[in-house]
Amino acid sequence: MDYLIVSDTHGDREILEKLANDYRGKVKAMFYIGDSELSHTDSVFDDFLPVVGNMDMDPMFPDDRDYKDTNINIYIAHGHLYHTEMSLGRLVEAAQAKQVDVVLTGHTHQLGVQMIDDILFINPGSISLPRGQYAFLEGTYAILSVLEDKLSVQFYTRDEKPVETLKFDFAR
User: Fold this and answer.
1) Which residues lie across from 115 on neighbouring strands?
2) End-to-end CA distance of the chain
3) What are phi and psi for residue 119, nearest 5 degrees?
């Protein structure tokens, strides 16, 4: 099963609409990790499971979200409420308490993936305003593939091309 993960569009509705149209029916779920600067009633969220970001003014987005299906148990939080710009420490503690397999976070605009205490943490980076060492890619999102024996994360550019050097596998 595949899951689309995108974050930090900051008003770039068109990219969300494009991703929704291109991945609808091809992935099990689409997660939006905050800072859309759109209303929670925007039709683009008919396809995405969103959470609030620090730049979202609509109070109707949830602060965080739990997602579970037969394949995976995921916790989703933008990151600002855990101060992930400083460290992942508070988010790690929350994830451990929830006993999840995967945490999806955004906020820093820097893509990343790491296993901490048997929990996979994924930040897809910003699709519209990337920062850090991969800013030259001009925006990224991620696909999480859940297989029986491993979790795979592949990062993609805005034009939906996989970044060959940014594919990571983690044993389950």
Assistant:
1) 120
2) 14
3) -120, 130
How far apart, in whole angstroms, are the C-alpha atoms of residue 126 and residue 34? 10
Per residue in 110-134, pLDDT (tens digit) is 999 999 999 999 999 999 999 999 9
Residue 55 DSSP label: T
Q: Round to whole Å and give the CA distance between 102 and 132.
A: 23
For the chain, list residues with pLDDT below 70. none
Counting every residue written for the chain, the total comes to 172
Half-sphere exposure of 149 (CA within 13 A, CB side): 0
Rounded CA separation 126/135 (Å)? 9
Q: What are phi and psi of 45, to 5 degrees?
A: -80, 5
Which residues touch 159 (CB under 8 Å, ≥6 apart)? none
- Rounded Cα distance between 155 and 5, Å, is 9
Query: Contacts from 37-43 at CB under 8 Å and sequence distance 24+?
Result: 37/9, 37/10, 37/11, 38/11, 38/13, 42/13
Report whether 131 contacts 112 (CB < 8 A).
no
Q: What is the pTM assigned to this prediction?
A: 0.97
Match 């997660």 to its residue by tokens: 31
Q: Helix H segments across the chain? A: 13-23, 89-98
Quote the DSSP letter at residue 71: S
Contact between 48 and 31 (Cβ < 8 Å): yes
Token pair, residue 44, equals 């683009």
